[in-house]
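Response to reviewer comment R2.3. The reviewers asked that we include at least one raw input/output pair. We reproduce the pair for PIG-L family deacetylase here without editing.
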Amino acid sequence: MIRPAPLTLPDGPVLVVAPHPDDETLGCGGLIAAAVARGLATHVLFVTDGGASHPGSRAWPRARLARRREAEAEEALRRLGAGGAPRTFLRLPDAGMPPRGSPAHAEALGTVTRLVRDLGPALVLLPWRRDPHRDHRDAWALATEALARAPARPEVLEYAIWLDELGAPEDHPAATEMEPVSLRVSPEVKRGALRAHASQLGLLVEDDPTGFVLGPATIDRLTGPEEIYWRPCER
Ligand SMILES: [Zn+2]
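Raw output as returned:
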């Protein structure tokens, strides 16, 4: 990868689009902390409810787990210094976002479109468009459609979560497609916030051995001293 250029924060509002609770911290926690510290209006949009991570658990059925994950996201934002920052929980089904053309999709698109219009973001952080996780791609598509309806065009940067571990060669950004930018961040702040997502760290659900657990390699990769974002190349 070419050496990323340093990312400069804008002077206006920031919108962070997180497909699941925990992506905000893993992908953008450092930027959220920096934006809030600078006094920028920072809004985090959680797209899915995260309720599909432990489908085998009897103690944590989907609705209970979804509520828990929302509380974990609230706590993570607080630890990032963003406790007072506005956030929206869209509560679409984890691992099953409604297809384009469905009433549920239209409703979600309307909500995101209004959010973009009301916030007027100068910078939008989206999940990587070809992330191997389908919810990440669907969240990118939903937000991109809403942004296309906005009166102004904000700067859009994309962050990859599962690309390096699970991506096929064609999933990666082409050199003529995207250029990387990086932001120096505090690994300690990110890791502190990530610990709020106990359900994803194997610390909460005890009756689903096949449930999702964030592995140490993933955590190390995504909580280092810099966050990498991808900016579309000028055409
Ligand atoms: Zn995710």
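The first strand starts at residue 5 and ends at 6. Residues 86 and 187 are 23 Å apart (CA to CA). Further pairs are available on request from the corresponding author.
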